[in-house]
């Protein structure tokens, strides 16, 4: 009998039982008041009159009326740049201990997002919430004695003066509690290796020494790591190396597009649990097995607001117009897409994270990620969100029994007329031509999206598809940003960026 595992499982069961149900709308009101109270003496708090907002009869309304929306560039240019110059008490008390470096999914320019000690505490508390939710998944006691492979960015953080810099997954892993370190793999020494390929090589070499019960990381890089381990040991599935693997905690992007290719690496199904950890904070996690939706963390250092995701509110660079309406948690509707705004214990205020979400169960505060504002393809009125693209690609996978875990698309002018040009990533041998895939994809989108169908009868003249090996997508990420960690493939590219991508593809395939 797994005695230690039984003890841990019982503790988790008791913790989950006594936690009880929260009221998300009330929790959010309390979080906002705490944020405003703590930041009222900062430069930001004084400028926007947090003291007066707190005196209002309706604090949420007063806050939304007084403080404007900010994307990263606006927040950095108007406020956070002063932190880089050595000032303190700018948008949150004191100075941040860490900066999360994020290139996001667009361009090479890195963002430096403040990570306060308060945020690290909030991330740890959210992690505990996720662990206690494992009580809902009916896992055997011995699972809680297995090791966990956390595949994030390097924990070898760069020290810059009085703070450290790195990706949020590296910052989080470098701050794991002492009692967890015995379970954590690949271990501190390997996790500090900066070069992704070198780190994965060491993981593959050591894989048989570990008894991995759970995986955690972004699907695209997790798949690549698992393939390397399988190839290195010349086996058929990852279960031939880690027979006790039972759980995969996904994060950063929707898992659904990777499901088919990921499952091909397994001998038998495992439990997939979605999480939503961004550079700006731990936003949500899946807490029950009946759904893949995630519960928004409404009582732990982040205040959320929601802008209806309508084309008229979204600008070409993915930002939202100043006159876009906003609703608080109390007024959201299920099944409707919203642009997510966050105010946090790291001093981000009404901050546009760039993601769109939809509520699947408001009472439980459960959401799903539906896309990115910058990945909204509407050049000729097609109104394609990433969610609609992912659904179409999944239908294409099922129709032709192929795996297409990555893609990118752009609206490109060919002979003066717009076409959607898709690059699809797969290592499968196909029994259908690229022209056949293009027609099938076009038909799927016409049937699923009336706006797309109208666009195809007017300004959108055609659809083209090119199939690429998966290695091209990995190398593009490596050449433009950095392999592994939080890096995600951009699903929609502007025409100029797409030209660069096609030139890169040509070079890779030559």
From TrEMBL:
Protein's name according to its UniProt entry: GH3 auxin-responsive promoter
Cellular component GO terms, alphabetical: cytoplasm
One MF term in the entry's GO annotations: acid-amino acid ligase activity
Domain GH3 C-terminal stretches: 390-495
GH3 middle domain boundaries: 297-362
A Pfam family the protein falls into: GH3
PANTHER family documented for this protein: GH3 DOMAIN-CONTAINING PROTEIN
Taxonomic source organism: Psychroflexus halocasei
């Amino acid at each position: 009998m797994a005695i230690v595992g039984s003890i841990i499982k019982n503790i988790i069961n008791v913790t989950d039982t006594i936690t009880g149900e929260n009221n998300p709308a009330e929790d959010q009101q309390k979080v906002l008041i705490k944020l405003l109270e703590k930041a009222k003496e900062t430069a930001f708090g004084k400028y926007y009159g947090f003291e007066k907002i707190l005196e209002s009869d309706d604090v949420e309304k007063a806050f939304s009326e007084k403080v404007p929306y900010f994307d990263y560039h606006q927040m950095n240019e108007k406020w956070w740049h002063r932190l880089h110059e050595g000032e303190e008490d700018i948008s949150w008390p004191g100075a941040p201990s860490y900066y999360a470096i994020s290139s996001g999914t667009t361009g090479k320019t890195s963002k430096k997002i403040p990570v306060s000690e308060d945020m690290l505490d909030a991330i740890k508390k959210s992690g505990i919430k996720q662990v206690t939710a494992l009580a809902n998944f009916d896992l055997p006691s011995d699972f809680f004695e297995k090791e966990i492979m956390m595949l994030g960015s390097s924990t070898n953080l760069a020290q810059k003066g009085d703070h450290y810099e790195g990706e949020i997954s590296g910052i989080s892993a470098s701050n794991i509690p002492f009692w967890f370190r015995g379970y954590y793999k690949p271990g501190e020494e390997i996790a500090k290796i900066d070069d992704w390929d070198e780190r994965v090589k060491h993981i593959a070499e050591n894989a048989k020494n570990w008894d991995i019960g759970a995986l955690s990381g972004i699907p695209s890089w997790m798949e690549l790591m698992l393939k390397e381990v399988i190839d290195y040991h010349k086996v058929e599935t990852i279960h031939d190396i880690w027979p006790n693997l039972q759980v995969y905690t996904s994060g950063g992007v929707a898992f659904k597009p990777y499901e088919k290719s990921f499952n091909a690496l397994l001998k038998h199904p495992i439990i997939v649990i979605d999480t939503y950890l961004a550079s700006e904070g731990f936003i949500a996690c899946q807490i029950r097995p009946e759904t893949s939706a995630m519960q928004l963390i409404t009582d732990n250092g982040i205040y959320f607001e929601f802008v209806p995701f309508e084309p008229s509110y979204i600008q070409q660079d993915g930002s939202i117009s100043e006159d876009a309406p906003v609703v608080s948690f109390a007024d959201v509707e299920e099944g409707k897409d919203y642009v997510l705004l966050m105010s946090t214990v790291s001093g981000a205020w009404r901050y546009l994270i760039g993601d769109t979400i939809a509520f699947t169960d408001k009472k439980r505060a459960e959401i799903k990620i539906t896309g990115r504002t910058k990945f909204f393809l509407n050049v000729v009125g097609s109104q394609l969100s990433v969610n609609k693209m992912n659904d179409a690609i999944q239908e294409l996978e099922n129709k032709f029994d192929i795996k297409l875990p990555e893609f990118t698309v752009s609206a490109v002018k060919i002979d003066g007329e717009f076409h959607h040009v898709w690059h699809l990533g797969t290592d499968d041998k196909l029994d259908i031509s690229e022209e056949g895939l293009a027609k099938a994809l076009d038909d799927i989108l016409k049937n699923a999206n009336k706006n797309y169908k109208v666009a195809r009868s007017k300004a959108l003249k055609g659809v083209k598809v090119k199939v690429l090996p998966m290695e091209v997508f990995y190398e593009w990420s490596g050449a433009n940003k950095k392999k592994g960690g939080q890096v995600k493939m951009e699903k929609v590219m502007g025409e100029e960026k797409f030209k660069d991508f096609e030139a890169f593809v040509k070079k890779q395939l030559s």
